[in-house]
Amino acid sequence: MDMPRAVKAQSPWRPCLVGLLLQLLFALGFFSYTRVSYDRPGPPAPGRSPGPASTPTPPAPRPLLILLWTWPFHTPVALSPCSKILPGTFDCQLTANRSLYPQADAVIVHHREVSANPGSQLPPQPRPPGQRWVWFSLESPSHCSHLSALDGYFNLTMSYHSDSDIFTPYGWLEPWPEPPGQIQVNLSAKTDLVAWAVSNWNSKSARVQYYENLKSHLRVDVYGRGHKPLPQGNMTETLARYKFYLAFKNSLHPDYITEKLWRNALEAWAVPVVLAFFKAYRQLQWDQSHHWPIQMKRNGKSISSLLVSPEAPALDRAQGQVSESNLGSGVFI
């Protein structure tokens, strides 16, 4: 198997909470239009002389203040100045201090922490003039309860969905600025074939049923609750022993790409195997010569044949094509 194309796999927000800061910065472009310079001189009043020409230096505008109302999943992180997170950004301040709510230009509310009782968990009303509220979630619709209870509160949406006002995926691909000649994948150290880490085990879910069929054709080592232990400290080292990783999501929705694709698979240089809508993964601009979509079959035989076959790169891709609206398995190499 050829070495995977060298790309930067950005760490997902949920397993690496510092990434939240970068996601919040996507909001800058949407909040910047709220800035108004009240010191800008206007036209002279009727009957009054404009006076001598002058160009007073206006005071520097205060930084945009973005308030994180709820810590996602109740996990605080250190909030650094925007200029330290994204060089060249000087007009943004991130805070979780609720006492600054009256001065905040925007308030970001994570859905999970307020959906059960929005009347008491949302910021107080009436909101300050010009303040924007942003609904934030990285969960799929299957795990976003009480959505209707939040109707009418928010000005902008912030999620993994490409139609959101502020697009915040778990990760993305960036090409290296120049070929990274020193990066090598030690294939000899990959002594095992397929791994899967799962904590939310539901025997009725599509991913577990697919695994049950797949394991009858090849060995799959399962980690997580009720299976082999996988401590966070050596997770990447453990998964790096495997050639393939099952990056199966807990629910299937358009645009929803599991964080395990980035953290568990790509960071361990394992080939991700996904069970998903193909369109979401095509939007990542994978090298299509290293992408084999396979129509989902309940017996799992087609995908198992690919994973164990040394002729995988020679597969006729046309035989595996399915429409973008269909579900399927995909192997990305």
Automatic annotation (TrEMBL):
Q: What is its EC number?
A: 2.4.1.-
Residue ranges constituting the Fucosyltransferase C-terminal domain according to the UniProt record: 188-283
In which compartments does the protein localize?
A: Golgi apparatus, Golgi stack membrane
User: So, what pathway does this thing act in?
Assistant: Protein modification; protein glycosylation
Family from the record = Belongs to the glycosyltransferase 10 family.
The molecular function terms in GO held by this entry are: 3-galactosyl-N-acetylglucosaminide 4-alpha-L-fucosyltransferase activity; 4-galactosyl-N-acetylglucosaminide 3-alpha-L-fucosyltransferase activity
Q: Name one GO cellular component term.
A: Golgi cisterna membrane
> What is the protein named?
Fucosyltransferase
Q: What is its main location?
A: Golgi
Q: Which reaction does it catalyse?
A: a neolactoside nLc6Cer(d18:1(4E)) + GDP-beta-L-fucose = a neolactoside III(3)-alpha-Fuc-nLc6Cer(d18:1(4E)) + GDP + H(+); a neolactoside VI(3)-alpha-NeuNAc-nLc6Cer + GDP-beta-L-fucose = a neolactoside VI(3)-alpha-NeuAc,III(3)-alphaFuc-nLc6Cer + GDP + H(+); a beta-D-galactosyl-(1->3)-N-acetyl-beta-D-glucosaminyl derivative + GDP-beta-L-fucose = a beta-D-galactosyl-(1->3)-[alpha-L-fucosyl-(1->4)]-N-acetyl-beta-D-glucosaminyl derivative + GDP + H(+); a neolactoside nLc4Cer + GDP-beta-L-fucose = a neolactoside III(3)-alpha-Fuc-nLc4Cer + GDP + H(+)
Q: Where is the Fucosyltransferase N-terminal domain?
A: 63-171
Topology relative to the lipid bilayer, per the entry, is: Single-pass type II membrane protein
InterPro entries according to UniProt: Glyco_tran_10_C (IPR055270), Glyco_tran_10_N (IPR031481), Glyco_trans_10 (IPR001503), GT10-like_C_sf (IPR038577)
- What does the record list as GO biological process? lipid metabolic process
Q: Which organism is it from?
A: Microtus ochrogaster
Matching Gene3D superfamilies: Glycosyl transferase family 10, C-terminal domain
**Keywords for this protein:** Glycoprotein, Glycosyltransferase, Golgi apparatus, Lipid metabolism, Membrane, Signal-anchor, Transferase, Transmembrane, Transmembrane helix
